[in-house]
Amino acid sequence: MHQLATMLTLIAASTALLAGPPETETRPVTETIHGVEVTDNYQWLEGDNTDLENMGRLTDEVAAWTDTQNDYTRSILDKLPGRKALEERLRELMEVPSIGSPVPYGNRYFYSRREGTQPQAVRYYRDGLKGKEHTLLDPQTINASGLTTISWTAPNADGSLMAFGIYTAGDENSTLYIMDVDSKEWFADEIPGKVNFSGWMPDNTGFFYERLEDLDDAYSSVMKYHKIGTHHRQDQILFRQKDINFFYGDLNKTESELDALKTTWGPFGSPSEDGRWLTVGYWTGTAGIDLWIADLSEWFRTGELNIKPMAIGKMGRIGGSHYDGDRLFIQHSFDAPNGMVSVIDLNNPAFENWKPVVAHDDKLVVDGVNFARGIIAVDYLENASTKIALFDNDGNSLGDLPLPGIGSAGLSTSDDRTEAFLSFSSFNMPRSIYKVDLANGDRELWARPGVPVDPSSIEVKQVWYDSKDGTPVSMFVVHKKDLVLDGTNPTILYGYGGFDSSQTPYFSSTLFPWYENGGVYAVANLRGGGEYGNAWHEAGMLDQKQNVFDDFIAAGEWLVENGYTNTKQLGIAGGSNGGLLTGAVMVQRPDLFSAVITAVPLLDMVRYQNFLMARYWVPEYGSSENADQFEYIMKYSPYHNVKPGTKYPAVLYTAGENDTRVHPLHSRKMAALVQASTGSDQAAEPVLLWVDREGGHGQGKPLHLRIRDVADQRIFMMWQLGMIKE
């Protein structure tokens, strides 16, 4: 089972059986944007775009076209020799149990676990860490299709009640329910509308939450208070996203500035556990948040929410926080590009009065902060790997928390105890959960699911290379030990490069068939990510977005120049913002790569902002509605830089029909355009599209669909990069 090459036959012999892609009708639509004529032959594949209310809604003809494309893709990927053997191997790997870190509430410990063939994770609790295990929520009993996902859970302080969210078929539109933990009975309370939970009141009679007032309007967020036993239509409103003057009415903003704020990620609230304070935040962009504080006791008494400024007009984000009476400890990167921890007197909350607790470090980036009893645990990134340092509440160092190795780690803590749970993984170490005592350093293994692979057979390196402008960029390179670097190793290069998201080491058992057959896997830490602080993120935003693509191209060139692979055996993969990355790099350097996976991507950057929640991302990318931003967007927008007759590599585009983040129109239009434009032989280097009718952006897929998706991507790369031999 471990050597797929012994089970697979020569795929090249089967390419003669492959038909060409379905032909797609062109219906040119020409727009003049800032004096530039832009013609779109496939705008009809967006769906219904006759008015803003129906923008992108699926039409019958687009559905029929999608079926034809899906059939074409399945006729190729399902019939590739070795597909069944690969699926069997992946099933063996993916049916390994998985478990989440326990989170304590009172004496109860809540966690999730998925066993064997279970399609989705089940929620459990124990009375005491070694107590009897009780099943709380099994998605399979809610809906036997396997398409129901528990998106989040929120027990109250003593673990007697639990709020939770459920969505179906990947749409992420969570509905909130409440359960009595002892009896397992669901309350009659039900709140729809893509709900996010904010916090319980200490007497357990109610809670705060956020939802969309209109599911068809991604910019209609509202924060409310729900009293248990009442209908959600009676819930009191604290603030609305559309009431922008509530937040900014006295700050002398222009109308255009206020309009732009209405379509960011918008507002949120975080109440203190004692029900006294509410931190109110508003995303000003993907790299900025404004903060206020409100006295909830006044709001309950008068119905008026009076917000006092804490930090306004600062670039940076916030992270972990902890209320301590009238003090708030908070992780942030305001005036601290690598992050720090400050303490705020909530009766005197202006930013100039914040006191540093854990100071800014020029070499380490704060990736997360957790709070235990008397201890602040800071997760740092050091060269894109985790280091955890401990401090007391005055900022005095308590030393580092020892980790099992170089990799990615996270803590699950509670502020009433020093007991915590450490989750750790790396490319060559399966995810392991340890029970640790932060006060004395004691550590014992709590859970580590067995995997039918040998992690010690894998070697991990971190290398540095220079991008086009000379900027040093780090990259992880993973392969089996003693691999001969003769320039003929099939290699997958992965990247993301956006939204301050860091790519750190992680374990994936499904990559082991790739390693076992001589494959190399590389992950580049591109600008636009958060691996090296705010400046690293900002260097890949807006008019600097080309830096991200240059970093990725330079990574591919380095892998070739250093004997790992060659252009015929180098593939690239990325999803979402990473799908934009691979889409852009494919049209900029089609000669460098032979296979491309572009999953749930943004590709038409001229029109992307018109669909779903995409205006959230205008601060990251810009918008063609702005003349200056249109100029640089047109230079890299993948859809607008396809050149007819160019020999493009084989490419697999994927999308989810129920995606509420990135509209499937991007993959549809790009697939049609590249199919019509490529100068390559599509029998050997096809342009494929797979739109999952039972999926969204990727979250919440049941096991059988995840096995199918991984098999699609792996067999595609194995075929195109020459891994399979006679």
Outline of this structure?
With 726 residues, the chain is α+β, with helices and mostly antiparallel strands.
Main traits of this protein?
single chain; 726 residues; Rossmann fold; five-stranded antiparallel sheet; 14 helices; 39 strands; disordered N terminus
Describe the protein.
- It is a single chain.
- The model is unreliable at 1-17 (pLDDT under 50).
- A hairpin with a 5-residue loop joins strand 26 (385-391) and strand 27 (397-401).
- The strands form nine sheets. The chain has an eight-stranded mixed β-sheet with strand order 32-33-35-34-36-37-38-39, with helices on both faces. Strands 3, 4, 5, 6 and 7 form a five-stranded antiparallel β-sheet that branches.
- The longest helix has 18 residues, at 60-77.
- The protein is globular and about 70 Å long.
- The chain is built from 14 helices and 39 strands.
- Helix 2 (83-94) crosses helix 14.
- It has 726 residues and is α+β, with helices and mostly antiparallel strands.
- The chain folds into four domains: 4-92 and 458-720, Alpha/Beta hydrolase fold, catalytic domain (Rossmann fold, 3-Layer(aba) Sandwich), CATH 3.40.50.1820; 98-242, 7 Propeller (Methylamine Dehydrogenase, Chain H); 265-360; 361-385 and 399-449.
